[in-house]
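Researcher: Good morning. I'm working through a list of sequences from a screen, and I'd like to move beyond sequence-only analysis. For each chain I'm collecting a predicted structure so we can compare shapes side by side. This is the next one on the list. No need for commentary yet; just the structure.
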Amino acid sequence: MNTIGENIRRFRREKDITQEMLADRLHISAQAVSKWERGECLPDVTLIVPIASYLGVSADDLLGVNEAVLRKRLEEFEKFRRESIQKLAKNGGSPAALEEHHRELREAVKKLYEDFPDNEEVLYHYLNSYHQTYRIPTMTPEEQAEVLKNAEEIGNVCNFIIKHGSSEGNQRFAWMSLAYLRKLQGNLREAVRIIAEHIDIGSRRRFLTEILRDTPDGNQHLKEQAATQLVELLTMLERLPEMENLSLEESLDRYGRLIRMVHEMVDEGDEGYTLQSILSMYHGKIADAALAEGEYDLAVTHYGDSIRYRKYSFEEPSHTSSTGLLAGYTRKPLPWMHEGWFRDQLIARINHYKEAPELAILRERDDFRNLIREYEEYLAE
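Model: Good morning. Structure tokens for this chain:
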């Protein structure tokens, strides 16, 4: 059970109230509030009701009385859930038994949610057992209609867990559920953005594959739409103010993560000209940061990677089919790309390396001169 001090801190932070604001309201010092929250002493009994009132909770909540009831109810729910699973196994897992299992769980978790609508653990069980938003890709049309009917409530539950959740796993589940919900609502752009920005890199491809999964009749348009949106997102991220004037460490972290995100969504070397152009830009940003901090070996490496992706764009025929998740769409040339456009881009990059004043110090190095010579010879062939 949480102490009173821990409850004060938790409720205060949920309401974005500082220790100073609470102290001013109670006409005491901020140090006194700090001592309560550290468990060094307890507030005077006469302050319990005023504290609870200001924090927007009951005195029982502040004292942890309701929390003790909640713990007991959660233990009872977990016991009920285990018994329901055992009963399902005993009945052989038939469709009728499975439906009964789901019905029992939904009823139990809905009652728990009605009694404790602001508890992270309860809300997780509510999403997981009642709405099962993560099942949207395999739901029947009737089940999807039920989710859409409750979309506002589901969104609010997800956002509460995301904002107030203390468990990283619960927050990740809420982001995932929200992405699936947005896809079902027809907002594929938002679904892709959520996955790209808030799901860890190790799981991102799997969730994107789910988000882009074709309908039973097939829907290549959805995949192409998501590919376009993802490219727009990657380009937009590079233009954000917080991506400007980064240190080398920050550039390796942020641009490095974006580079890995592209690679995990397509087969190696099969990115298509649009994503190759983006990769070239990202490696160039890291190289610029390395140059500014005097890390010349690293700068040459990433300038080499930057021009390598320019070369890939020039080499690869636009009609090549791809097994990559998004590459097939991003290979299509745009109408304004004249014949020789990719070659011109490569030549422009080599000329930049040969002439840019900021690269003069690198041109004194054999490895950088060799890099320029390699691509000049390649174009002369």
